[in-house]
Amino acid sequence: MKLYIVDVFTEECFGGNPAGIVILPEGAGFPSDDVMVKTAAELRYSETAFIKRLGEKEFNIRYFTPAAEVELCGHATIGSFYVLLKEGLIKAGDVCVNHTLAGELKVQVDNDAILMDMAEPKEVGEMTEQAEIEALYKVMGISYLGNEDYNKDLNVKLIPKMVTTGLIDIMMPVKDEIELDKINPDFPALTELSKKYEVVGVHAFTVNTEDGCIHARNFAPLYDIDEEAATGTSNGALTFYLYNMGIVKANKLNNVIQGEKMLRPSKISTKLLMENGKPIVKVGGFAVTLVKGEIEI
């Protein structure tokens, strides 16, 4: 099987978010789940994608963290189609179909960007009680002061909500980039909190009204990911959250900066479209190859 290590949501090596990419031989089935989990654990990246080709522009991709299979991973999807493009297995201009546990998704492939449809965006819950909001912020290592999630420039009151475009995360607003930088989670407590709310983890964010960028940090210790440098699914969910709050607009390209605290700054592009009255969220970016080789399993 061919193995690649790619840095996603960046144009330079050692930036963005790394992922392992494994392309199965033509006609081969997936290895056992145990082997795929162990492979992901051996590579030690947050996700490793295993690609099975079903047709000329049709693929089945499965995603594994070092601990378990997950339904979808945005950055590993971008990395997968980047590798397929570079290997000549698809070409620029193709619109491909990716079959995942989160559903059937379309991926637009170009030479300078790859834009993928996320799963249907949904808000599945919210935190309205003061006590549960305070408990969340305490677990994340910062104080909830009652107004830190309120941005006067945005003129809207933001509260933590559980949102999904394939994976459920808690969207956690903070006052500004200074507060975002202060976050220092109690990881065992965050693991238990994630189990309680049945989420992958917490996606903390703030909106910079000066440069128009969204800044974010993502934490998922339940899946052995203390912090992630770029998270496609979470930023897709965040785009839907901010659209519902009137902060981002339909058909407008949004930029999310993530990974700054990890010294792996990433730029993730997102867009929300309305099609037949339904929201469609797309997440995009590009990647670079760090390693190419064979894996013997």
Could you please describe the fold and organization of this structure?
About 20% of the residues lie in helices and about 40% in strands. It is an alpha+beta fold and about 300 residues long. The chain has two domains: about 1-115 and about 285-295, Roll (Diaminopimelate Epimerase, Chain A, domain 1); about 120-285, Diaminopimelate Epimerase, Chain A, domain 1 (Roll), CATH 3.10.310. It has an 18-stranded mixed sheet that branches. Strands 10-11 form a two-stranded antiparallel sheet. The protein is globular and about 55 Å long. The relative contact order is 0.18.
What keyword list fits this structure?
297 residues, alpha+beta, Diaminopimelate Epimerase, Chain A, domain 1, 2 domains, 18-stranded mixed beta sheet, two-stranded antiparallel sheet, 6 helices, 20 strands
Strand-helix topology:
Elements: E1 2-8, E2 17-23, H1 33-43, E3 48-55, E4 58-64, E5 69-70, H2 74-86, E6 95-100, E7 103-109, E8 114-117, E9 122-126, H3 130-139, E10 150-151, E11 156-157, E12 161-164, E13 168-173, H4 177-182, H5 187-197, E14 201-207, E15 214-220, E16 225-228, H6 232-244, E17 254-258, E18 266-275, E19 278-285, E20 287-294
Parallel strand pairs: 2-3, 4-6, 13-14, 15-17
Antiparallel strand pairs: 1-2, 1-20, 3-4, 4-5, 6-7, 7-8, 8-19, 9-12, 10-11, 12-13, 14-15, 15-16, 17-18, 18-19
